Amino acid sequence: MTIFHFGNCIALAYGPYFLTYKYSGMPEYGAFWKCAQVAGMYMLTQLCKMLLLATFFPMAEGPPEDSSLTTELVKTTVDFGDIMGLSLVMHRIPGSGHIKVLITGLGWAAADLVLTRALPLWVGARGLEFDWKYIQISLDANISLVHHLNVALLVWLWWMGLAAAVKPLVASLLAVCVYRPLLPQILALLVGSRPAGFTLLAVNATPTLCISLLAAHVFITHNPSRW
Amino acid sequence: MWSDQDLVEVLRNSVPYYLVVALPLLIMLSPVPVVDAAAEFTVYRLQQYDLHGVAHGSRSSLVNVEARSLEAGSVGRRCVLARLADLTPTHYQRVVSQGAVSLLILLPANLTALSSHHRQQLVQDVEAAMLEAESQLAVYLAYETPELLDIYNSVRASSDTHTASSAAAALVSSLSTDGYQMVVGGSQSKLIPDMTLTNIQGKLSGYGVEEQLPTIAIVAHYDAFAAAPELAWGGDSNGSGVVVLLELARILSRLYTSPRTHPRLNLAFLLSAGGYINYQGSKRFLEDHLDASDSPLLSETHFTLCLDTIGTGDTLRLHVSKRPRENSPGHRFYQALEEAGAQAGITVEMVHRKINLQEDTQAWEHEKYSMRRLPAFSLSRLQGPKTGERGSVVDTPENVDLAALTRNTAVVANALLTHIYNTSVHDILHNGLAVTEKSVGSWLELVTSQPRSPQLLAGKNNPLVNTLYQILSRYTSEARVTHFKADKRDPEWAFYDVTHATMAAYAVKPAAFDFLLTLGIVLYLGLIYVFLQYFPKLYSIMVKLSSPHKSKSY
Fold first, then answer.
1. Which of B12, B524, B552 would best serve as a mutation to test chain A binding (most A beta carbons within 10 A)?
2. Is the pTM of this model over 0.90?
3. Which residue segment(s) compose the domain that A46 sits in?
4. How many domains are contained in chain A?
5. Separation in Å, CA of B536 to nearest CA in chain A
6. Which topology term describes how it sits in the membrane (chain B) (predicted)?
């Protein structure tokens, strides 16, 4: 299972990032260094979020499933810091519409991948024992790529200045994006059991795809000329 | 500040070199991750020892192979999982001859529940087959736990699919079923250097000048034996013998302290070590007291009574190598024993078996004494020395019938006192001198508190040995321990370490599964590539779809 399986998981996780970078026209814009800047901003944002969480939310005892929905809700609200960080960095990235979104989204997602998922894969996938969870981690990395691209697009749309009719839509889409981690818990309350494994992946993937379609639609109807 | 292009150029040039050097280095230097295995459990290894130059038992201890069940066709270079109930000597021979690396035997949690005598006999046969000669198989025994049984069942199920219906089904199942990799780490087993065995002896001196009085010696070997050293509880064999010796010591020390009942002969007690490796303790005891001329202990003995396995049953057999002459002390003792046995309702027989001087191992302990021309006999419930009931894993403390052991102890005590005082002694054994089930039970619990295979009792500070020494020093005078080792140049015995280990079972998928996964991932990446290539087209389609809306709203 060892190194070969680790290689498999890394290919599954990093492949789409690499392909997106190469084939969506970014190298022509010299985007590598900017992506690195975005990654740096990501690390800063995470640090501030962690400080906030540690200060205001003491360590919860008991298994994570037991913590009430409201506590989790408040905790996830801190993720709005992500949005602020994204906005900050997007202003500093030069470039027109779609390339700006791509650079920011990809850089953010790549930093997220390296900092949260590389270590579990390194430690776990190289072991003798086979577990489906490593493939699931890699697929989750793919989903989070689309998710971060979504968020970047929505943030850019927000700051672009939209007609008053569309602003609430974009705001609600952003809120759904931020609260997406709560979905498994909400489902657990509704259905009774917490989704796990591949079901969890499906639960994460569906809203992401829907949001991407909606966001793309908004983008098209309001800024086609900026392509 | 570098421009973007320069940075990319630098990376493109240098990254390959870094990778070529750094990646293999990183992989080599990174430690093997200690990941949770599907199951980790304690396993006990088979005995590994040499006796008189002949090697016995399992010679290796490392395992890192896949698991197969006993019914699988070929088990070469695999670890065979088998339940104790399914294992027979034939199966064992087949496993050895097919070149398996390891054998893991699953023991039922309650060994004494092997009620049928036939099943017990099978277990003893398997043990004998495993210990008879040496093999390179790493044999381990483990108690069945629910997770271990799960693993066993799934391994068995996957072996069955090798005879599946169609080739396609077999292919699919072989690619997707979980295999298990059994791993025992640590080091290879090696010889225990300078292993010491310990004799514990005590003496009660008779009334008068000690050197001129005759002696009666009572001997019991306190070690045990089994297929796995850590499972050698030795309840009946020879826990019962030790219990009887300790009770006799207690009773006789009472009688010796009171001047009215102080008899005119010496009594020597010996708890000998190495009983199962050809009675090395008795051999050393004899050398010390016969060859070294300054010890008067064995200069004139009435007889030596060896106790071995008297914990159950209704019969006691006195095994002799030369029938005692009429009116000899031995004969008188035998008559006393018959009488006491008849009163308690058990049969007493004498079994005569000549010593075969061609063999280098002795069957009973008394043969060591008989060879030195001392009158001796062994008292046992067993018919013969090699019935397999001595030295088996099934001989747990629950195997001993406490009521029978108490009764047998009383019989032996009665017979001994009759012989010593030359009268019938029905009513001496009451109150403080009586043999009670409670005291017998507590002696037995003490003796069987740890497994007693010789290598586990080695060393100069074993707690059980110390406890026995303290008990004997309480009841007898001049109690002492004697440590001895095997001869340096031509050792009679040698034991090897690694008696227990932790085995980890990892759930693994077959190697082909990895390739399948790679194929899937390549397809997936190909799909994404295609999607990205056609993205502009997709985008324009979406624009066209939304433009009717746009033209309408504007």
1. B524
2. no
3. 2-226
4. 1
5. 10
6. Single-pass membrane protein
